Amino acid sequence: MILELDCGNSFIKWRLLNEHMTSVGWGVVDADDALIEVIAQKQISLRYCRMVSVRNDEETFDLASRLRQELSVETLLVSPTQELGGVKNGYDQFDRLGLDRWVAVVGAFSLSRRACLVIDLGTAVTSDFVSDSGEHLGGFICPGVPLMRSQLRTHTRRTRYDALEAAQALRSVTPGRSTAEAVERGCLLMLQGFVLGQIEMARSLLGKEFDIFLTGGDAPLVASVAPAAKVVPDLVFIGLAIACPIE
Questions:
Q1: Among 44, 66, 21, which residue's Cα sits nearest to residue 234?
Q2: Identified catalytic residue from 6, 62, 100, 162
């Protein structure tokens, strides 16, 4: 089995592949201990592990060390590069581009092989533009729904409601008649507006012919305003396989 890891600041996404490179399990955990526990419970033999991490070096190496000690598997780590999979890193300092963004862009271009717009909708929202020739033209970073919601709850004393109210609020986008409806629908409209703005910008930067890729946990929230987009939940893992090929 091959273990793939996408380590963010808040969560670790994991996926297991069999010898045919087919996914046979996946999940999300919030801590290293939880990851080790859930994989150990499966009582499987791991041949390799490959990881993309936005954590600092110490935290990343600590997890790789634990995987070696407790699951007997060596970990291949994604490193910053100026070019990968036909994509040229567009940052002035190429090693400052988030590795999760980088492999998502590489994964998208590997599927498209033409100009594309890549939007990752998670805790933060990122967008990246890639030309027909694979030139990464840069992108944007802004708060996602979890961050917007958190800031409103933190800085506005009366903004309090539970997860059930939040879910129910998104059944419509009419003006909210409760705090939960007003906040959740407002955040949703901001998210959708950002996506529409990025698509319009892509038309000016990339021309008429380009692919749109949506990934991240909140991608379904904006799919309706971008019907031509391809929703690819495992885009980071697709790029991870290119960055860390296994012989």
A1: 21
A2: 100
20-52: per-residue pLDDT in tens?
Answer: 889 999 999 999 999 999 999 998 999 999 999
Please name which of 24, 68, 43, 10 lies closest in space to residue 217, comparing C-alpha atoms.
10
The dihedral over CA atoms of 163, 167, 173, 179, expressed in degrees to the nearest 10, equals -20
- Listed as ranges, residues in the chain with pLDDT below 50 are none
> How is residue 35 written in tokens?
């990851």
**Residue 100 among the catalytic residues:** yes
Joined tokens for residue 105? 């862009």
Burial 190-202 (b: 16+ CB within 10 A, else e): bbbebbeebbeeb
Name the residue with tokens 């708060």: 143
- Give one word for 237, left, alpha or beta, with left for phi > 0 and alpha for psi -120 to 50: alpha
What pLDDT score was predicted for residue 50? 97
Give residue 233's pLDDT: 93
Handedness of CA 217, 218, 224, 225 (dihedral sign): negative
Over its C-alpha atoms, the chain yields an Rg (Å, rounded) of: 19
> DSSP states of 121-166 as a string?
ESSEEEEEEE-TT-BEEEEEEEE-HHHHHHHHHHH-TT----HHHH
Q: Answer yes or no: are the C-beta atoms of 195 and 222 closer than 8 Å.
A: yes
Rounded distance, CA 103 to CA 84, Å? 9
User: Among 104, 117, 85, which Cα is nearest to 226's?
Assistant: 117
